[in-house]
Amino acid sequence: MARGAGGRRVQVSSCKSEEPPGPPPLPRHLPRPAVSTPSPLRFQLSASMFALICLAAQYVNLYHTVWWLPLSQQHHAVNYQLICRPTAMFICAILCRRLPCALLARVKPREAGVVYLLPVLGIATFQICRSYGLLSLVFLLYPSLIYCGVFGFTWTPLMSPTGCSDDPPDHLSCLAAKPTDIRQEAANFRTDFNTRCAVHLGRWQRVEPRHAPHHLWSDHCFWPQNNLVKVRTKEYFRAEAVCNAAEPGNVSHLRLYALFSQPQQLTRVLMLLIILQISSQLWMLVTARYWQHSVVAVLLLLAGSSSLFRTVRQHLITKKLYMAERDLQENSQFK
Questions:
Q1: For residue range 64-82, what is the model confidence (pLDDT) as tens digits?
Q2: What is the pLDDT of residue 134?
Q3: How the protein sits in the membrane (predicted)?
Q4: What is the number of other CB atoms lying within 10 angstroms of the CB of residue 36?
């Protein structure tokens, strides 16, 4: 007898099998089409350009003039003399901090930080303190203190885009044939939004069985769909995916499968968010009453158009690829 939900006692069948069931059909993957991706240098140039465009838009909104009026004493669209040059240099150094590592591929993050970032920030900080006093150090140093508390005294998270190599790891692949390798791959590729190991990982659902035959779960085999297993904690789980290598009750495996089993859902949400952003920028451009607002809207539209193109392309490719793999998997089940 076992206690079910709500305090009820339900009778669990004693029909159990020590032998695991036969292996299910493993998911088959199609080769991903060759799509041109920007090089690290091109990506960092685009990111730096986008950051500088946003900074320029902020300065236009803050220091715009009425240069077109007949009695105006201004001959430029922006009051350049009001812009604090040390502050602008400090902001530009922070926004473009990863560009030197991309320009010089052999430069390490620590070398770039010591040779480029630290001297520029030091000179800019000294000039800001001369202009605004020592109180300005509080606003400049508290992000550094937070960074040191989170990452420690290392340059890699600050100067490197991801803190790891751009080359894919070669010790594991999404076609691993062992359940232990699948779980290890899921732990290593948690930050990959397009990982295919989630399809091999599968999903388990906790159930309250009634007179149902079950197996004792083993971590050395794949489990077919609708199989009932019992774990060491005396809980029962039913396999819901076609191929299941996940550990029953593991929250991280369940979360990874829910997010990455269908990556086209994530790309669809991202595409809709970018479309909503561009639509709001178009509305701001149409309803703008001041010239600086129109300039800012145009700059943001130009900066976001490339992101929309890449996201739509990625969504279409991912959708077609996973639909073809799903059809291939369904056809293999009926053979």
A1: 888 888 877 878 888 888 8
A2: 81
A3: Multi-pass membrane protein
A4: 6
